[in-house]
Amino acid sequence: MPKIVVDEKFCKGCGLCFGVCPKDLIKAGPNVNAAGYHYAVQQREDECTGCKLCAIICPDSAIEVYK
Q1: Cα 63 from Cα 55, distance rounded (Å)
Q2: How far apart are CA 35 and CA 55, in angstroms?
Q3: Angle (CA) 58 62 64, round 5°
Q4: How many domains does the chain have?
Q5: Contact at 8 Å (CB) between 41 and 3?
Q6: What is the CATH classification number for the domain harbouring 48?
């Protein structure tokens, strides 16, 4: 199953990946990173198609997609 891994150290919670996910699987998580940002987390991992749109749009390269 495809899945995404968000490097919470680099994610600044900009939200670009939230809107680009065709399945609406990425949201701001409840926790904050060391910089004080609510970093992105994946929901419903079993629905991810591995399209990589989230990784492509991330300005900080904080997302990796594994198939």
Answers
A1: 5
A2: 21
A3: 95
A4: 1
A5: no
A6: 3.30.70.20
Q: How far apart are CA 33 and CA 3, in angstroms?
A: 21
Q: What is the mean pLDDT of residues 55-67?
A: 96
Percent share of the chain, pLDDT over 70: 100
Task: Supply the pLDDT for residue 67.
Answer: 87
Rounded to an integer, what distance in angstroms lies between the CA atom of residue 21 and that of residue 61? Answer: 16
The whole-model pTM stands at 0.89
Residue span of the structural domain in which 34 resides: 3-66
- Per-residue confidence at 14, pLDDT binned at 50, 70, 90? very high
**Per-residue pLDDT at 1:** 85
Amino acid at 16: L
CA distance 62 to 54: 10
